[in-house]
Amino acid sequence: MDFTFFESFRLPSHDEIFSMSEKMTNLLENEKNSWRPVSSDGNPGSLLDFTDCSLPVIIIPDLHARPLFLKQICEYKVFDMTVLEALEKKLIHVVFVGDALHSEKTTKERWHLCEEEFEKDMVSGSAMREEMSEGLSLLMMLFELKTSFPDNFHFLKGNHENIMNVHEGGDFPFRKYAEEGRMVKAFVRDFYGDDVLYMLSLYEKNLPLVYSSKRCVVSHGEPRRTFTRDELINARLNPDVVSGLIWTENNEAQCGSVSNTIENLFGKNDSILWFGGHRPVNGKCALRQDGRYIQIHNPLRKNIVFLNGMLNGESDFDPERDIVSVIGGVYE
Hints:
Blueprint: H1 14-29, E1 47-50, E2 57-60, H2 67-75, E3 77-78, E4 81-82, H3 83-88, E5 93-96, H4 108-119, H5 126-148, E6 153-155, H6 180-191, H7 194-205, E7 210-213, E8 216-219, H8 229-233, H9 239-246, H10 257-266, E9 273-276, E10 286-288, E11 293-295, E12 303-307, H11 319-322, E13 323-325
Helix pairs in contact: 1-5, 1-7, 4-5, 6-7
């Protein structure tokens, strides 16, 4: 394995990003239907079904152009080995809730500089090149990990996986500090060309939306309403399901959407919890829906969820034990 981008966070070349996004798309288009059921249109569905798997699960919140965070995750120690080594030995599942691009919080001023450049027709100016060096090097790292460990490494679609910045299929154009979505699309088209832009959009369209195992359910956002298993498998055919898994605001979800959807997936099971990101939290997490839904995205921290104790005599989720920082940390 050649983890080039783990050592140097830089803009990939045209050939590097095109080749890797093509490889990723081909991989996602042919994922095993034993754990990724086929949707009614014959394509891999949007649900990753590992309900027969009891491996420990590491859940990663929104990344937002933080390649160093991903590198620190891979170097974090579990079972007396790094996460990367545990992936190589197929001892764990690593699941990301989505949102690879568009830095936030600490880079607000840079986005303002990007917008100033953009208004002067500098589509790939210095501020935007700095932003995209971080975002695209992170994306290349994700591609390398997924293609190296396809059965154990999973990245879900978030609301920022919309490189075309479209308003369709459950996606909506994005802006927060500036016109991030529009500027990123323009940068990729200007710096790389329409072929790379198109290939990245294909990769995004093939991403799953929900992960489920004996330990947990994971999606980018809180499920807006109760979904059936068939709806989750066929999510890409229904914009309402897509938006209902990636765009839900706090206090927007129907009461019981989590527990009812879990019951549709597993039958009656009060021990399964649902994890997601999307809306930022203070501290380690926020508990919603009577504690069945756990939000874990704190953009100012580098926390991950490590579900190891569950099914080993410790069935209850403990945020103090199971949400840990990867900065200089070793899971005990």
